[in-house]
Amino acid sequence: MNAEDLAQEHIRSLSPYAAGFQPQGDGWTKLNTNESPYPPAPGVAAAINGELDRLHLYPDPTSSGFRRAVARHCGIGEDQVIVGNGSDDILNLLVRVFGGPGRLTGYTIPGYSLYPTLIAMGGGEGWAIEFDRSMTLPVASIVASATQLFFLTSPNAPTGVVFANALISEVLRSYPGILVVDEAYADFSGENAAALLADHPNLVITRTLSKSHGLAGLRVGYGLASPGVIDLLDRVRDSYNVNRLSQAAALASIADQNHFKANLARVLKTRETCSTFYRDLGWFVYPSSTNFLFVEPRDGSGRTGPGVSESLFEFLMAKKILVRRFPSHALTSGFLRFSVGADSEMRILNQAVQSWLRKE
Amino acid sequence: MNAEDLAQEHIRSLSPYAAGFQPQGDGWTKLNTNESPYPPAPGVAAAINGELDRLHLYPDPTSSGFRRAVARHCGIGEDQVIVGNGSDDILNLLVRVFGGPGRLTGYTIPGYSLYPTLIAMGGGEGWAIEFDRSMTLPVASIVASATQLFFLTSPNAPTGVVFANALISEVLRSYPGILVVDEAYADFSGENAAALLADHPNLVITRTLSKSHGLAGLRVGYGLASPGVIDLLDRVRDSYNVNRLSQAAALASIADQNHFKANLARVLKTRETCSTFYRDLGWFVYPSSTNFLFVEPRDGSGRTGPGVSESLFEFLMAKKILVRRFPSHALTSGFLRFSVGADSEMRILNQAVQSWLRKE
Q1: Which residues are CB-contacts of A280 (< 8 A; sequence separation ≥ 6)?
Q2: A42-255 belongs to which CATH class?
Q3: B42-50 vs B244-255: helix axis angle to the nearest 10?
Q4: Closest-CA residue in chain A for B39?
Q5: For B99-243, where are the alpha helices, taking DSSP H only?
Q6: Cβ(A179)–Cβ(A152) under 8 Å?
Q7: Over 90: is that where the pLDDT of B17 sits?
Q8: Which of A81, A344, B23, B343 has its CA 20 to 30 A from that of A170?
Q9: What is the per-residue pLDDT across A111-136, written as a single tens digit (0 to 9) for each?
Q10: Do B86 and A57 touch (CB under 8 A)?
């Protein structure tokens, strides 16, 4: 008997999602998974310590304290919020409810590369719409797609380009499915889609505390939607999906808006400086509304392309500088994605880039 | 447009799992969800504090430190272990891989009541096999069932009865599907099925740190199986399912076997004393291999049954003593489940039971 033969066919043929490399040792300049270089709010450690004598007790199953704080922060009802073990948890629930066998789920290329994996896990079909280099939102293609669910990363990953609410509204007005606006990076942008929730019951917004709140290690994200959609997502949610320490930490983090805004300002300042640095080298850099830069390396001879970006990637890796490349698609294969780290980390990166330029 | 109409049919008709009531205020004697009354190992708090300056970094995606420790503890390979956000996470992954549309998944009544919810979430069919009051394992019925996946809680919940390895082997030898032995409570028993893994690639064991390790608030569980089955489960696992603090805490907890064994001994001693107390009242009490007692209350007039157990449940609830009842099935509706708490909590419970007896 071969136990593996008992698995569902679509699982046996599934390629697992490739998460960014997470080195566990020291000495790395880690600019590959868009973590915050700054510590979370000081209240976070205190909140975690305040829970240590209750570790033996199950957490609040609906994360109600944090849920209430998010609702207040966004000016919506508590019944419009669901809290997840990272926003990946919410994305997974969305596929379980609105995707599945015999259903078509849309996403864009480029976009967050987890979507096609989640769709395949659920046994549904994926429908990819490709951006061209201008990164103009293909409103008509989304609206005309036969999908029941569509994932749009805005600001987009890995390009960093944000889509204006005016365009998202245009999709929502005509698209007959559920549009998920994945706002993992929206805190770094001037724009987010929360104001559109009131008029569009088919809008779902997902967010994470992993990036702008500096809490990637804790796995907290949330979804915003109409109460009816939240109720459906709740039915497939694990009863205790977010643990006691993560709930307490998330609540403390969202409560300290001063710390949050100060860190945000530092990231935006560094992003600006680095954008200028790479543009001054003559590189194409997408306008970033995130905490990363998507750059098209140009070598000393003025060449660009997949070979050039790979050469720089390997050069940086040899110096223990981790960045991210996306070799599987023509639009992204000539680029690299650099997380916006601390100024000291960006100096290490930029100096390494200059060494590479001299070497090439 | 009604967004809810876009959901998959089996999700729209899903009844969500009813988790045990988790009161967030003080003053409760909480004996309803089998949490440990004792603090976790002292090293747990230190391990959590040791991670506080790395909260901004993603956790190890495969929980490799804890996974290695579990493998060593169980005398199996690291590739035979998967770590979950509670063992519920692993149970969910099992249904995603081996359940699903057009498939039949088995479970027993009574048993952990999450299984039918997970099966329904996955769009598959459930196949329940009912125990009779003797709680004899229906080996032939399991083997003859047309299921591809079967969940067996051993020790059983909510009765507390353990099934001997000899019987589980008998199932494994002839059952052509995946047998999941859910050992959430096995630490409280003299028996567990780990030794059967070597000979049976169709055996999966799930365990949790929520009960015997006193870490319900942290959500850590694990699964043990053949490398091929673990690989399949890993494909549908969220990349960062267990957060940084939970991984560190779990590792510290499993490393301190002295603390673990001391707490276990206290639970077993209290369980013994309480079993005797209820048997001395003339109540039927299942032999418990867990940290709870499943008792059949008998009122002052010698009556038993659903009305009697409900009367005691309500009486206790009014005194802020939380226990659990299982009214949906004839075999369990006349019973109540009492978690084995600290001796002081059991005194409060036992005194309340005596008041109820005088009142009835």
Answers
A1: none
A2: alpha beta
A3: 150
A4: A56
A5: 114-121, 139-144, 165-174, 227-236
A6: yes
A7: no
A8: A81
A9: 999 999 999 999 999 999 999 999 99
A10: no
pTM for this prediction: 0.97
- 3-class SS string, chain A: CCHHHHCCHHHHCCCCCCCCCCCCCCCCEECCCCCCCCCCCHHHHHHHHHCHHHCCCCCCCCCHHHHHHHHHHHCCCHHHEEEECCHHHHHHHHHHHHCCCCCEEEEEECCCCHHHHHHHHCCCEEEEEECCCCCCCCHHHHHHCCCCEEEEECCCCCCCCCCCHHHHHHHHHHCCCEEEEECCCHHHCCCCCHHHHHHCCCEEEEEECCCCCCCHHHCCEEEECCHHHHHHHHHHCCCCCCCHHHHHHHHHHHHCHHHHHHHHHHHHHHHHHHHHHHHHCCCEECCCCCCEEEEECCCCCCCCCHHHHHHHHHHHHHCCEECECCCCCCCCCCCEEEECCCHHHHHHHHHHHHHHHHHC
Contact in structure between A322 and A352 (CB atoms under 8 Å): no
Angle between helices B343-359 and B306-318 (to 10 degrees): 120
Q: Cα–Cα distance between A293 and A276 in angstroms, integer? A: 11
- Residues of B whose CB is below 8 A from A247: none
- Which of B12, B56, B68, B237 should we substitute to test contact with A (largest number of A Cβ atoms within 10 Å)? B56
Contacts 24+ apart (CB under 8 A), B258-262: B259/B40, B259/B41, B259/B42, B260/B41, B260/B212, B260/B213
Do A37 and A269 meet the contact criterion of CB atoms below 8 Å apart?
Answer: no
Which one of B5, B6, B95, B203 would you mutate to disrupt binding with A, by most A Cβ within 10 Å of its Cβ? B6
> Which CATH number is B24-38+258-357 given?
3.90.1150.10
Counted across chains A and B, CB pairs separated by less than 8 A come out at 245
Tokens, residue A210: 């992993």
Are B24-38+258-357 and B42-255 in the same CATH fold?
no
Which residue of A243, A244, A246 is the best one to mutate when testing the B interface, meaning the one whose CB has the most B CBs within 10 A?
A: A243
Query: Does the distance separating the beta carbons of B215 and A244 come in below 8 Å?
Result: no
Other beta carbons within 10 angstroms of residue B337's beta carbon come to 24
| Nearest-CA distance A220 → chain B (Å) | 9
Q: Which helix (H) or strand (E) holds B354?
A: helix B343-359
Q: What's the rounded Cα separation, in Å, for the pair A340 and A136?
A: 24
Looking at the complex, report in whole angstroms how far the Cα of residue A31 sits from the nearest Cα belonging to chain B. 11
Say if the Cβ atoms of B149 and A6 lie within 8 Å.
yes
Position A269: which residue type? K
- Cβ distance of B55 and A6 shorter than 8 Å: no
Asked if the Cβ–Cβ distance from B218 to A12 is below 8 Å, we say no
Q: Are strands B321-322 and B29-30 parallel, antiparallel or unpaired?
A: parallel
- Minimum distance, in Å, between the CA of residue B57 and any CA atom of chain A: 5
Q: State chain A's mean pLDDT as an integer.
A: 96
C-alpha distances out from residue A337 to B10, B140, B239, Å: 41, 58, 20
- Where in chain B are the domains? 24-38+258-357, 42-255
Q: What residue of B is the nearest CA neighbor of A121?
A: B236
Q: What is the pLDDT of residues A100-112, one digit of tens each?
A: 999 999 999 999 9
- Taking CA atoms, B282 is separated from A48, B274, B275, B302, B340, in Å, by 46, 13, 11, 9, 19
What is the per-residue pLDDT for A341? 98
pLDDT at A142 over 80: yes
